[in-house]
Amino acid sequence: MPRASCLEMPKLAEVEDAARALGLESTSRSDAARPSRPWEKTGYIMVDRKGKTRSFTLKSLAQAIQRSRQTKPKGKPS
C-alpha cells in the first residue's frame, strides 16, 4: 500500500467499525499478540473480502478509518 494510505497503529475497534461500515463480515480476537511482543495484546481481525483483492480491501478499510477519525471530536471543549 502507498505510505499515504497507511495508518499508524489503528485500534482493533476502529478496524471492526470500518469493516462493519463497509458491509464486510469479520471475526476478531482481542486477546491475541504478536510473537515478538507477547505482552502486547493488540488483537487481530479476519475479514471476508467478498471477492475483492486484498489491496482494495485494505485501502477501503484505511479510508473508512481515516473518515471516522476526522469526524470524532478531539478532546473536551473548553
Outline the fold blueprint:
Layout: H1 12-21, E1 26-29, E2 44-47, H2 54-71
Antiparallel strand pairs: 1-2
Written overview of the protein:
- The model has no long low-confidence stretch (mean pLDDT 88).
- The chain contains 2 helices and 2 strands, in the order αββα.
- The protein has helices at 12-21, 54-71, and strands at residues 26-29, 44-47.
- The protein has one domain: 2-Layer Sandwich (Phenylalanyl-tRNA Synthetase, Chain B, domain 1).
- The longest helix has 18 residues, at 54-71.
- It has a two-stranded antiparallel sheet with strand order 1-2.
- Helix content is 36%, strand content 10%.
- It is α+β, with helices and mostly antiparallel strands.
- Helix 1 (12-21) packs across helix 2 (54-71).
Counting DSSP E segments of at least 2 residues, the number of strands comes to: 2
Low-confidence stretches: none
The count of domains is 1
- Strand line-up in the sheet with most strands: 1-2
Cα radius of gyration in angstroms: 14 Å
- How can the largest sheet be summarized? 2 strands, antiparallel
DSSP helix fraction:
25-40%
The CATH homologous superfamily corresponds to Signal recognition particle, SRP19-like subunit
CATH level-two architecture: 2-Layer Sandwich
Look up the CATH topology. Phenylalanyl-tRNA Synthetase, Chain B, domain 1
Counted by DSSP, the helix tally is 2
**CATH class type:** Alpha Beta
Apparent shape: globular
Order of helices and strands: HEEH
| N- and C-termini, Cα separation | 39 Å
Helix-strand makeup class? alpha+beta
Mean pLDDT: 88
Strand content: 5-15%
Report the oligomer. single chain
